Amino acid sequence: MSQEFATIALAGLGAVLVIAGLTFFLRPRWLLAWLKGMAVFGVMTVGAYLLVIAFNLYSYQSLAGMQTVATVSTQEQGAQRWGVTFEARNAQPVVATLRGDQWQVDAKIIRFTGPLRWLGIGPAYRLERLGGRYTSLEQERDLPRSVIGLSDTVWADIWELDRQFDLPFVEGVYGNATFMPMRDGAAFDVRLSGSGLVAVPVNEEARKAVQYW
């Protein structure tokens, strides 16, 4: 298609669309019905969006400032094999086995902006998984990883949707605690704020593990 022909075609299509649009003004009832329909559709869209947010908030927990959200304790079971007890706030303890030399907790954090923040909706979080890691690059590459899921899959997860589509008034943040060493009898607090996770040793074994790590 030549540039001249393409220009004529685009001009013709533009003229047709303008004329078609002007017909709405020749028959005001069509325009009024269309505007009403668009307004109703907009209201329903906003309502559905708010319902999805409300549904998600049931699977997340509120977050106010820096707070302890879980404790992690480790017991040696064998070479690079550890029994881990994970106790989250308002949840049953999770007891499982991790392989490796270090552990880490991952979480999803949602922050709200604009009108949602004005309504007083604060940040919320959901603990996602507890994983192990080897300090040796060769072992980390060749040996199987151990990961423990800490939450169920949520339909229409607003955190995932925001990462894909950049939703309005919602900010999905990925938080993880720095890898901590595993040591027999060590215990750590997992603390969380709106910016992420941090692990803090709470007994002597944990402090020694961090000190000589």
UniProtKB/TrEMBL annotation:
<keyword id="KW-1133">Transmembrane helix</keyword>
<keyword id="KW-0812">Transmembrane</keyword>
<keyword id="KW-0472">Membrane</keyword>
<feature type="transmembrane region" description="Helical">
    <location>
        <begin position="6"/>
        <end position="26"/>
    </location>
</feature>
<protein>
    <submittedName>
        <fullName>Multidrug transporter</fullName>
    </submittedName>
</protein>
<feature type="transmembrane region" description="Helical">
    <location>
        <begin position="38"/>
        <end position="58"/>
    </location>
</feature>
